[in-house]
Structure formats: C-alpha cells, structure tokens
Design a protein that fits this description.
1 helix, 84% helix, mainly alpha
C-alpha cells in the first residue's frame, strides 16, 4: 500500500532529475560552443586590427611619397621659371 503512494513521487522526482540533468548538459554544450565562437571571432578581430595597422602604415608611406613628388614638381617648376619671376607671381626688382 505504501508503494502506491511513494512510487509516483519517486517517478516524478526521477523525471525531474533527468530533465534537469539534460538542461544542464545542454547549457554546458551551449557555453562551450559560444566559447569556441568567441575565440574564433577574437582571432578575426586581431587579424583585422593587424591589417588595419598595416594599411595605415602603407597609407602613410604613400602620402609621404606623394608629398615628396609634389615638392619635387614644385621645385622643378620654379627652377624652370624665368630668373626675374618670383615663385609667388610678382617680379623681382
């Protein structure tokens, strides 16, 4: 007679324990998946940041090169100007 009262309680508790264990296991798997994805994204971010630094350095080199080319062009233009002309457009007196 006691079995009739206790057995349903034990069955319910066992079912609850089973479901709880399943949820905990799923949660752990989900966090592990998230950790792997986060690690992958962090690697991508690191690569992107490194590439940005490389591109910024390349841009600086290109700008310096363009500036040197402009300076040379201006210098050549002024050397080829008539000797009585000033580089600012006024004649020397």
């Amino acid at each position: 007679m006691v079995c009739f009262y206790v057995e349903p309680l034990v069955d319910d508790q066992n079912r609850f324990n089973e479901l709880t264990t399943r949820v905990v296991a799923q949660t752990v798997r989900r966090y592990n998946d998230d950790d792997a994805r986060i690690e992958e994204l962090e690697k991508k971010i690191y690569k992107c940041e490194r590439r940005i630094r490389e591109l910024e350095e390349e841009l600086k080199r290109i700008r310096r090169k363009c500036l040197r080319m402009r300076i040379r062009r201006i210098y050549r233009e002024n050397l080829s100007a008539p000797s009585d002309a000033c580089i600012w457009g006024r004649s020397q007196q």
